[in-house]
Structure formats: C-alpha cells, structure tokens
Amino acid sequence: MKRREFLKTTGVTAAALFAGDVLFSRVVTAQDKKILQVAVSSDAWNLDVRKGTDVTGLNICKQLYNGLMNYDPDGNMFADLAEAAPEQPDDVTYIFKLRKGVQFHGGYGEMTAEDVVYSFDTIRGVGDQKGTFLSLWLRPLDKAEAIDSHTVKFTMKSPYGDFLDACTLCKIVSKNASEERGKDFTRQPIGTGPFEFVEWVKDDHITLKRFDDYFTEGVPSLDGVYVQIIPDDTVKVTNLITGQVDMIKEIPPRNLAQLKQTPGIVVGQRTGTQCEQLYFNCAVEPFNDVNARRAVSYAIDRESIAEKVFFGMAQPAKAMLTEEQMPLKKFSDDMVNVNYDPEKAKGFLKASSMPDGFEFTCMTTGQGWFVEQLTVMQANLAEVGITMHIEPMEKSVMFGKMREGDYTAVYEDLNAAYFGYGAATPALFYTPPERWLNWKDDAGYAADELLQKFVTTLDVNEGQVIFNQFLDIVLDQLPYTQVVFVDSTDAWKDSVTDYKTSLPNDSMWWNTKLG
Q1: At what angle do helices 290-299 and 342-351 cross, to 10 degrees?
Q2: Whole-angstrom Cα distance, residue 54 to residue 105?
Q3: Reported confidence tier of residue 28, pLDDT bands at 50, 70, 90
Q4: pTM to 2 decimals?
C-alpha cells in the first residue's frame, strides 16, 4: 500500500508523520510542524539541477538550489547568491561578488567561487566533463575564473546579451558533494536552497525539510514540503477539496470553475508561458518534407483546442515564445501566422511528396490533457487527408526515444520560462541542429546562425530585427509547431498564505505560510 493510500485509510496527516518511513519520522514528528502537502501529476526525472528539464523536477530544484541571479513570481530579476548585479568593465566581462557565509546542505560547508566555477564548467562540459543541455545557453562563455574565494569572473568570447538570464538557470551545486556522489547526486542533491532534500520514493512522493542555515533570516516559513505524485486528476482535485493536500499544481481545466466556486479554496490563475507543441523529426519520412510539416501545422484548429480541451484556459500560440518575451515586447506586424486553414493545408499536402495523403504516429505523455489535444488534431488532420495514430507512453520513456531520434512526431509541452525569460530561451531548447528535431538542412543551419547572432547582440532594437529574421525561417520551415499557451494555475486551501502563482507556474514555497 502506498503512503497516500495509507493516510486515506488511517486518517493520519503528513503534519504528524510527514512520511511513513523511519528516516523522516526522525526529522519531523511534532504535531505543530508546518508541512505543506502538494499534489503534482508526475514524478521528477532527476534532482541534479544541471540536468533536469521536467516540471516536477524543476519545481523541486527551485527549493534546493540558488543561482547567482533569480526571478520573482512576476519575472523580475534579482541578485540571489550574488551580492548584487555584476560589475561589467566591458562588453565581454562580468565580475560577481558572492554572498559570504552561504552554506551548503548536509554539512558540505560554505559556498565559494570554486563551487560557482565548477557548476558552470560541468554544465559547459569543460575538460573531461560531458556537459549538459544547459551548455546551449553558455556557448558564448569562454572562461569562468575564481579571482578569490568570493569573486568570480566570467569572460565571453563575444558580447552576450542574455548572460544574466543564463545566470538564473545555471544553479550552483557543491563541488565536493557532486564529485563525492557522482551519478548518485541526481538522487542525493546538495544545494544552498531554503529547503534540503530528505527522500524520494519513485512515483509516490518527494520530501523536503526546512534548511535551518539558509542565508536569508526567517526563510523559509514552512518546516517542510511533502510532494505527492497523483497522476489521476480527479483524485488530485478531490484530495484538495477534502483537505488531504494543501495545494495542487496545474489545475485540470475541466475543474477550474468547480474549484473557483468551492468554499475554502483559493485559485491562482494568470496568462502563462507553457506552450503545447508538436515536434517533427525532420530527418525521417514524412517530415523530412517541409510541405508535410506545413500541411500538418495549418490543419490544426488551435482555437478549438483552447476551447474544448482547456475550457478557455489557454490561448492560441503564434510562436515558441509569448509576445512579451520578444526583445521589444511585440511581434513583427508581418510575422507569418500559422493558423487553422484546411485549404492551405490541402495545398501543402498536394505539393508534398505524398499528395494523396500519409499517416504517421505521434508519441505523447500518457497522462493529463495531451491525448485530448491530439484527439482534436486527429480529427483536424483526417479532414485534409492525413492519418495520425496516437501513442501515449510514460514521459521519461518518450523523451528517451526522442533523444535517440527514435520517433516521427512528439506532442509535449515546454515551459522554458522555468529557466529564464529571454527570447532565446525557448528557441534554444529544440531549434539548434544538434538538438532532437534533427533540423540539419540549410534552413536549419541558417536559423541557428541567426539565433547565435541574436544572443551575442546587446542592442535591443538590433536584437528585435535579428529575432524576427529567425522567426521568419522557423515559421516558414516549421520543424515544430506551437498550438496553445496554457494559463499558469494553482489551487490551494485558504489556510495557505503568501503564495503567488508565477508566470511559468514554478513554485516559491519558501515565501509560503501555512495556518
């Protein structure tokens, strides 16, 4: 019997036990401890912040680690492990003064410049390090140096307008802990964050406790967070209404109105940055043919998906980023609009190498709203002569296949604002030719060249021009197509205070209080 089933049966609360295991009973046993119980839909993949890309893992990592810089719930940047914004003696140099006395979890001592350099170098893959996908954000970085124990100097190969944004996503790990734990670090993470890791039971729960030596006095207010993995939306909502959890992440759209009308429940909702996207493998049939990609993209009724699947809790997407993420906060007036146009889709199909139609299989996550969206698309595509088969599967298995190129199409979401708000951030996830879309034709390389030019451009007006040119290629060639942006939503009991739903729907539980 899983722990949450045991609690339902016995009526024992997480505030009393916090976990049904010996380990955590030694950490928190008092009845008056403030333990926030949060329900999420899927398990984390790993808790090494340098490697994580999944929503649950990123939410947990927000509690465990700090970056040199960070964002508040409204997307405003602030100095975190750095004392202040860096000195910039020239366009390619950034000098950070670090907070003194910042402690790592688990007795690993004070954070120093050596840990910062190590974190950035392991992300980049310096020396014999393999590097991680976050290295895409650090390609302009030439060198990271520890000037003294609390001063770090970064030197760019060329000007990099988004480097401070990169400093929010590249969190700092303990060099000693990482080297000591090796591959086990992903399940035994050590950071400087307001909460420290206690345990992780796969597909059941992740437990965090308050870090008493956190560098900000009075933070966090909570004694701990208990994150329950509940894939079933009905169970998740019911557990909130009946008081078995304090908060749920990502409200199921069909339950939004219900929760807004439920006494004692608070709903947080705001325009979000989570984009639902259809990814094509540009190296295999039929999507090595640009007209096949165009035919599918123009056949999708985005308005219908926003209404039927999300009950209005989503907006049709125009690109891989929102208009507010553009350098000048606006799209070009003449930007290509990939909207629902069945006749145009039929024209692209006729111009393709498969004018009589084709079929393909699309993998997707086997939980949540993904299959519902694809079911609408399936009907849209059938109307223009294209057959799509839907193959739901476990998320990590799906992404493993995607990394290996073992797929034709994938439908998933991306909330790149978990990492940063810069225009390049969502584009860097999938657009570069070395990424999973295998977009390695002349257009793909041209788009990547523009993307790299953009990230090294400091002038915002020039950056807008370059990014518009980049979007012109992407929206014409469509190596992937965006469908809707989903609103950021959370729901919580009114005993939870000082919590705010953020733009990317990540969680800043260190500010949260529990009555």
Answers
A1: 160
A2: 23
A3: very low
A4: 0.83
